[in-house]
Amino acid sequence: QIFGRERLNGHYGVSSFVISNTVSATPYLLLISLVPGAIAYYLVGLQRSFDHFAYFSLVLFMTMMLVEGLMMIVASAVPDFLMGIITGAGIQGVMMLNGGFFRLPHDLPKPVWRYPMYYVAFHKYANQGFYKNEFLGLTFPNNQAGGGDTITGDEILRDYWQVEMGYNKWVDLAVLFGMVILYRVLFLAIMKLTEKVKPMVNRLRFRRTQPSVHIADQGFEANGAK
């Protein structure tokens, strides 16, 4: 609503709004990714090296940027904030269910849920990036019967979490970054389209009709003149 009012007043355009919103929101999202991320990361005893923590924070930051972009798209398509909350929560819920955590990738039904929803959900790339960041290069005691004394992080990722090992964790981060750009471009396109289509719809709804001629009124006036 604020953007619509400012747009009608001619203060700025759609592109300016998208760019300024992204620039102004980035420091805040980065801050709330670093501070709570640092608390949670070191409390649970994840890998202590700075590069692992930096990757963890970057993935968290990208996911927050993605959620903001998704909610901006939803907000541009629904009439009020309550519908926006319901719709956005529903979309994110479906993505979470198909992200490979609640159900492993091979257990997802192939129609719709795995193809394409599993690959559309940004949770897939965030989860796999987190997994690779933590497990790769480590060795753990093996408690499984019939196995060796130890098990590698690679085996855990491949056999238990069914993580795609054909590419490294930085590819997952790059995919998340690409999705951030894609969501912003989609929001820009929707706003541009709405800006062009909405006036056309309003003109069709409130089109002026030809004035009708009231014969009875004219006859009454003529009789009164006589």
Automatic annotation (TrEMBL):
Q: Per its record, what are the GO molecular function terms?
A: ABC-type transporter activity
Q: What superkingdom heads the lineage?
A: Eukaryota
What does the entry list under GO cellular component?
membrane
What does the UniProt entry say about where the protein is found? Membrane
Q: Which InterPro entries match?
A: ABC2_TM, Plant_ABCG
Keyword vocabulary terms for this entry: Membrane, Transmembrane, Transmembrane helix, Transport
Q: Which residues form the ABC-2 type transporter transmembrane domain?
A: 2-135
Q: How does it sit in the membrane?
A: Multi-pass membrane protein
Q: Which Pfam families match?
A: ABC2_membrane
**Chief place of localization:** membrane
Chain segments annotated as transmembrane = 25-44, 53-75, 81-104, 170-191
Q: Record's PANTHER family?
A: ABC TRANSPORTER G FAMILY MEMBER 11, OS09G0472100 PROTEIN
Q: Which family is this protein grouped under?
A: Belongs to the ABC transporter superfamily. ABCG family. Eye pigment precursor importer (TC 3.A.1.204) subfamily.
What's the protein name?
A: ABC-2 type transporter transmembrane domain-containing protein
Organism this protein belongs to:
Aegilops tauschii subsp. strangulata (Goatgrass)
